[in-house]
Amino acid sequence: MSNKIFHSIAILGVGLIGGSLGLAVKAAGSVAEVRGWGRNSARLQRALDLGAVDTVTSDLAEVLHGVDCAIIATPTQHAEQLLLETLNAASDTTIISDVASVKANLADALQLAACAEAKKAQVVLAHPIAGSEQSGVEAASATLFNDQRVILTPLANTRPGAVDKVSALWRSVGAQLHSMDAELHDRVLGHTSHLPHVLAYALVDYLNRQPESELMFTFAGGGFRDFTRIAASDPRMWREISLANREALLDALRGYQGQLQLMVDALENSDGDTLEASFGRAKTARDAFKPGE
Amino acid sequence: MSNKIFHSIAILGVGLIGGSLGLAVKAAGSVAEVRGWGRNSARLQRALDLGAVDTVTSDLAEVLHGVDCAIIATPTQHAEQLLLETLNAASDTTIISDVASVKANLADALQLAACAEAKKAQVVLAHPIAGSEQSGVEAASATLFNDQRVILTPLANTRPGAVDKVSALWRSVGAQLHSMDAELHDRVLGHTSHLPHVLAYALVDYLNRQPESELMFTFAGGGFRDFTRIAASDPRMWREISLANREALLDALRGYQGQLQLMVDALENSDGDTLEASFGRAKTARDAFKPGE
């Protein structure tokens, strides 16, 4: 009996996440054949050279032909369109999944898609919470998902067998599987990932506009370094994530603005007790936060 | 000829910074005798046990008697009062310095102090930009200041010979010396250190108040971990730094609020170009930031 989860998978978009998945399933031996698809032939060649995929093509019908599972791993702005194209081009038995950071927009697109319900039931929307401020297949790693969380956001009519197979694929590369509603996913990630990215970008852009910006960057220390590491992330990707999760991110930003105003008010009133109480609650919560440390 | 910078120094307050300075000058051999002073005898004993100081006492007159240099390394809220007490108790030839994160309040207190100008000229206000979210002498390290920056904020009448000696002391433990006006120091650090701390505390306290806070902390990833690391810092210390640098920090906070509102406006208008332009400027500036990496 084979220990393969799938005989063949197609990774649609072989960047940091897609490339890492290819490397990881090949290292784990959980897939016999890993096909790579993309629009840029130079990038596909690099993915092939790095061993992230076994074959490459820019022809979507070709890569999907007879494949057991297709994983959409393109940037956020292309995920929705590619999901619809993949639904059209894939066979009824192909399981379709993705890795996008925002899920409700894809869930909505899927529900509105003009295709058979049986085909929609094969789609398992997924978000591996892994990545880095780097991008591209050159930064890919076979261990990127090890001990990291993957959130599945199945719809009511998603086929349980498809969920099980996608779960098994991610488990084979060391990930921990979780499941939640797409709207809740977007609210949670909007607060813990998308909001901090916007806050870090805003800080660095703000300091950059100060007349003493050169001095400021010169004398910024380790706290600033850690706080702003995510501001080195890909601006185009974060534009698209921000727009894709616009409502939940706006909700998070407005809530944060309220919290910040409380701090400004306390400082204006020299109200050290309010400052210290907030700082203390934050420290207690942060000290209790351990995942991924 | 001796390579000692000072025969004897007194470290007033032997926590993370004071303890690290003691370990570092002893490792460097730049001071023959390191005396420790503090109010808590158990903490003093730990500093002695860890080898951060050679002798300990809770008597300020005793620790200052015949000492070449006194370094005030207590928490921010005690620095001003202890500076005045040290000015009173130290001899005219003792050089006095400190390690506090805020400088203009101490510069003001020094200028208003009721003592001879010659004595004030012996005071060299200093800020080693080093530390961690940990505190206490148990976290002290002989290499904490290695390749880190120390900013001196001498006043117009500070004695150049005293500046040279304090500079030499910090250089002996591997630090890079800089000098600037106390107000500029507070503005620079208010933006690059104090502001990020308040922002990180505010994020964690805000998330902690959400109904889904447990889910949020469970699914927060590496970006959140780095962004919020400084929210594990000592709340009491950051209350006091915030209050001591109140005006400059308020200025930084208000400027940041303006920047954040630009992001909210852009998101409300689905204005991806404005978002991406800001993210892109931030990435360029962050990529160019290298100190301490």
Would you mind describing this structure in some detail?
2 copies of one chain form a homodimer. Chain A has 293 residues and is an alpha/beta fold. The first copy, chain A, has 2 domains: 6-180, Rossmann fold, CATH 3.40.50.720; 185-288, 6-phosphogluconate dehydrogenase C-terminal like domain (6-phosphogluconate dehydrogenase C-terminal fold, Orthogonal Bundle). In chain A, 54% of the residues lie in helices and 13% in strands. Chain A has helices spanning 16-28, 41-49, 60-64, 76-89, 104-112, 117-120, 160-172, 182-208, 213-219, 222-227, 235-244, 246-268, 272-288; strands at 6-12, 31-37, 55-57, 69-72, 95-98, 123-124, 126-129, 149-152, 176-179. In chain A, the strands form 2 sheets. In chain A, strands 3-2-1-4-5-6 form a 6-stranded parallel sheet, with helices on both faces. In chain A, strand 4, helix 4 (76-89) and strand 5 (95-98) form a beta-alpha-beta unit. In chain A, helix 4 (76-89) runs parallel beside helix 5 and helix 8 packs across helix 12 (246-268). Chain A is elongated. The two termini of chain A are 38 Å apart. The relative contact order of chain A is 0.11. The mean pLDDT of chain A is 95. Chains A and B meet through helix 8, helix 9, helix 10, helix 11 and helix 12 of A and helix 8, helix 9, helix 10, helix 11 and helix 12 of B.
